[in-house]
């Protein structure tokens, strides 16, 4: 309520109603996926960032991250978060996290303007280099 995500119908009434902010994820499935991914995967992993850094140091290996530290069981040692996404869930729910991740990335890219990156970085300063742009506009990876 202090962030105006929900509101009371009348102060002190204890009757809560939606605002435009709380209704947005209901109306936009990609935004709903973005919010869900951030609340259920990103936030918990962020809480373990210090512990993961103590365990893995400044590793750039995808098998040594705060996500892996937070979510992967010991039986999945050497695997990445995407490996877990693929096997999480049962039956029709199997792979639901990877689908939600893809949808949340589509939401992020919906406002993406590649011209901003092209003009904001000294690409010529890289010299003889290869740059790879990996992104998906689909609703699922």
Give the biggest beta sheet: 2 strands, antiparallel
Number of helices, where a helix is a run of at least 4 consecutive DSSP H or I residues: 7
**What is the CA-atom radius of gyration, in angstroms?**
20 Å
What is the overall shape?
Answer: extended
Total count of strands: 2
User: Are there runs of 5+ residues with pLDDT below 50, and where?
Assistant: 136-141
> What is the H/E order?
EEHHHHHHH
- The average pLDDT is 87
* Multimerization status: single chain
Strand order, biggest sheet? 1-2
Distance between the termini: 35 Å
Roughly how much helix do the residues carry, as a percent range? Answer: 40-55%
Strand residues, percent = under 5%
Helices and strands: which structural class? mainly alpha
Q: Secondary-structure map with pairings?
A:
Layout: E1 6-8, E2 16-18, H1 20-27, H2 29-47, H3 49-56, H4 66-71, H5 81-87, H6 96-109, H7 114-120
Antiparallel strand pairs: 1-2
Helix pairs in contact: 1-2, 2-6
């Amino acid at each position: 309520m202090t962030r105006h995500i929900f509101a009371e119908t009348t102060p002190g009434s204890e009757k809560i109603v939606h605002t435009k902010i709380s209704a947005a994820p209901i109306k936009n499935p990609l935004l709903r996926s973005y919010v869900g991914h951030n609340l259920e995967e990103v936030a918990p992993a962020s809480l373990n960032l210090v512990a993961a850094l103590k365990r893995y140091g400044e590793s750039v290996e995808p098998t040594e991250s705060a996500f892996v530290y937070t979510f992967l069981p010991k039986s999945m040692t050497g695997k990445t978060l995407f490996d877990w996404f693929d096997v999480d869930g049962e039956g029709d729910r199997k792979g639901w996290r990877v689908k939600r991740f893809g949808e949340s990335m589509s939401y992020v890219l919906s406002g993406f303007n590649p011209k901003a990156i092209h003009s904001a970085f000294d690409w010529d300063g890289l010299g003889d280099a290869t740059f790879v742009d990996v992104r998906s506009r689909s609703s699922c990876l």
